[in-house]
Structures are given as structure tokens and as C-alpha cells.
Specification:
By secondary structure, this protein is an alpha+beta fold. It has one helix spanning about 45-55, and strands spanning about 1-10, 15-20, 30-35, 60-65. The chain is globular and about 35 Å long.
Length: about 80
């Protein structure tokens, strides 16, 4: 499995961390994994990471990313 770490920019130029997992053999399809509000791209106790690795082992390209941290938004502090 090959893992590429990168960043993508949102429409307002905020950078999100992204990990893309590539299977060793032919790609069957692509799965985009999105985490919940209080988690990260790897999930609590790395559950999402384990699922992503299993999907990749079975021929799926997997894209995971971190949403913005809600603490960085000004409306929280108003």
C-alpha cells in the first residue's frame, strides 16, 4: 500500500490535511471517508484508519481528510 499525504484548499483558501491510500494492485473504486464532528480522519481509537487500511488491502483507493477545526471559526467566540 502506498500512502500520499497532501493538502487541499477550500474555496476560501483554507488548507485541509488529506491522506490518500493506493492499493498494490488495480484500483477497484475510490472511497472517500468523512469523520464525525469530534473526531479526525483516523477516527477515535483509529477505527477509521483500520477500515481505510482494510479497504485498501481489498483494492480500493481511499481518501481521508480532516475537516476544519470548529474552534478556528470566529462565530464560536462571539
Amino acid at each position: 500500500m502506498k500512502i500520499k499525504c497532501d493538502k487541499i484548499k477550500t474555496i476560501d483558501n483554507f488548507e485541509l490535511d488529506v491522506e490518500i491510500r493506493f492499493p498494490e494492485n488495480q484500483i477497484k473504486s475510490t472511497v472517500v471517508m468523512c469523520h464525525g464532528l469530534t473526531s479526525s480522519k483516523h477516527g477515535r481509537k483509529e477505527q477509521l484508519l483500520k477500515i481505510a487500511n482494510k479497504l485498501c488491502e481489498n483494492g480500493f483507493k481511499v481518501i481521508q481528510f480532516d475537516w476544519r477545526e470548529i474552534r478556528t471559526n470566529n462565530f464560536i467566540n462571539q
